[in-house]
Automatic annotation (TrEMBL):
Designated name of the protein: ABC transporter ATP-binding protein
Presence of keyword ATP-binding: yes
Compartments it resides in: Cell membrane
Transmembrane segments: none
Listed SMART domains: AAA
Keywords (A to Z) from UniProt: ATP-binding, Cell membrane, Membrane, Nucleotide-binding, Translocase, Transport
Organism this protein belongs to: Ktedonosporobacter rubrisoli
GO molecular function, one term: ATPase-coupled transmembrane transporter activity
Record InterPro entries: AAA+_ATPase (IPR003593), ABC_transporter-like_ATP-bd (IPR003439), ABC_transporter-like_CS (IPR017871), ABC_transpr_CbiO/EcfA_su (IPR015856), ECF_ABC_transporter_ATP-bd (IPR050095), P-loop_NTPase (IPR027417)
Length: 274
């Protein structure tokens, strides 16, 4: 009577319990992190400079293994992935856009960087070219395809780095301050793309300092405090309306109104028309 057997509980994509990460064995970057992220969730990580957001994304991407605690990603022990075991398959499913695009761009041309991932997957030349064209068009940099990455502006490099992850078609996308250094038009193109990828069912975790984009790209917000622990976990409305929390986490300045911004408008997201 299979219908009486309860369905197994859905496994989270990311499962972290009491995770601690120390740089050089002494510099605490994350402490006591408990977090479950499920398939199809879109999460924003908020926190002040140095609160551990980038470190957390690097843990989720299997670049680092936790110093203490347990962590499973897509059902795998992250320590095994970080040591290289099954890393190839893992990185087909999980793609990280680094905060610094120079870390990510290493080929002679932008096209080669965007093609690198799909070529590693063993796709046909035709499929590789189709994926590259799509990713370059999504980031509006098709015209830069033959340029050397080191010749690009900061924002152009950022767009190339994002395209190099999009071309992999990962199910899980980790974005470290993706809109930083983008001009306003390109920023909203990317925000809309993240929104559409989320609607298509991708699991997306984004760090940002731009509160106005949070309600558009996420349904859940996790705030990391300066103690490198999770301070709050809730909906964008719950988090963004909690002025005391935002001040405590150094996400807004208590005296913001002194610069002439009316208090009631401080956190009003100005979403583009949908
Ligand atoms: N390679 C490193 N070696 C030693 N300490 C590091 C290293 N990278 C980061 N840290 C430290 O770890 C802590 C967390 O840094 P992390 O880069 O994760 O913060 P963040 O929240 O992403 O900050 P930001 O908003 O400035 O990008 C900080 O105290 C930082 O100084």
């Amino acid at each position: 009577m299979t219908e009486n057997i309860p369905a197994p509980a859905e496994q989270p994509v990311f499962h972290l319990r009491n995770v601690r990460y120390l740089y050089n064995g002494r510099q605490v970057a994350l402490d006591g992190i408990d977090l479950d992220v499920y398939r199809g969730e879109q999460v924003v990580l908020l926190g002040a400079n140095g609160s551990g957001k980038s470190t957390l994304l690097k843990l989720l991407d299997g670049i680092y293994a936790p110093t203490e605690g347990t962590m499973r990603v897509l059902g795998r022990d992250i320590k095994a992935v970080a040591s290289g075991e099954g890393a190839f398959g893992f990185h087909q499913e999980v793609g990280l856009v680094f905060q610094d695009p120079d870390v990510q761009l290493f080929s002679a041309t932008v096209f080669d960087d965007v093609a690198f991932g799909p070529l590693q997957l063993g796709l046909s030349q035709q499929e590789v070219e189709a994926r590259c064209k799509e990713a370059l068009e999504q980031m509006e940099i098709l015209h830069l395809a033959r340029r050397a990455p080191f010749e690009l502006s900061g924002g152009e490099k950022k767009r190339a780095a994002i395209a190099s992850v999009l071309s992999l078609h990962p199910e899980v996308i980790l974005l470290d301050e993706p809109t930083a250094s983008l001009d306003p038009r390109t920023k909203w193109v990317l925000v809309n793309l993240i929104r559409l990828l989320g609607q298509a069912g991708k699991t997306i975790i984004t760090t940002t300092h731009e509160l106005e984009i949070v309600p558009i790209i996420a349904k859940r917000v996790v705030v990391i405090g300066e103690e490198r622990r999770i301070l709050a976990d809730g909906t964008p409305a719950q988090i963004l309306r909690d002025r005391d929390l935002l001040i405590r986490a150094n996400l807004i300045h208590a005296q913001l109104h002194q610069f002439g911004l009316p208090r009631e408008q401080e956190l009003e997201p100005f979403a583009p028309e949908r």
